[in-house]
Amino acid sequence: MQGQVDVVAADDLVEVHVSGKLSREVYEEFVPLLEEQIREHGKLRILFVMRDFHGWTAGAMWEDFKFDLAHFRDLRRVAMVGEKRWEHGMAIFCRPFTTAQVRYFPLSDLEAARDWVQETQPA
């Protein structure tokens, strides 16, 4: 299944909804949107929602790694929402690559994830 990304941004909050297997081309479309939000609003809060997600191609993983290095300090909170056990593991794996607070939520707790990512006090 080809990957799809939908991005909705409002101020410093960006919702990223992904499905399928993400390719380098998909990253080339949505990373500039994130970088524009960073330039406009500073540190971002990201709600990353995975539905029927199958991971990344090697090229997309490289693009993700480059984004993480370039924006190590540009994220405030990242709520990762998913359906699968490995997605939870991915949230733990991501923590050393950002100064952001990163937390995983099951898809059934999407609203709780949305609330958490918008909180202003440290968790």
UniProtKB/TrEMBL annotation:
Q: What's the short name of a Pfam family annotated to this entry?
A: SpoIIAA-like
Q: Species lineage, top-down?
A: Bacteria, Pseudomonadati, Planctomycetota, Planctomycetia, Planctomycetia incertae sedis
Name used for this protein in its record: STAS/SEC14 domain-containing protein
- The source's superkingdom equals Bacteria
Mind telling me which InterPro entries this protein's record contains?
SpoIIAA-like, SpoIIAA-like_sf, STAS_dom_sf
According to its UniProt entry, this protein's organism is: Engelhardtia mirabilis
The coiled-coil segments of this chain are none
UniProt cross-references to SUPFAM superfamilies, sorted A to Z: SpoIIaa-like
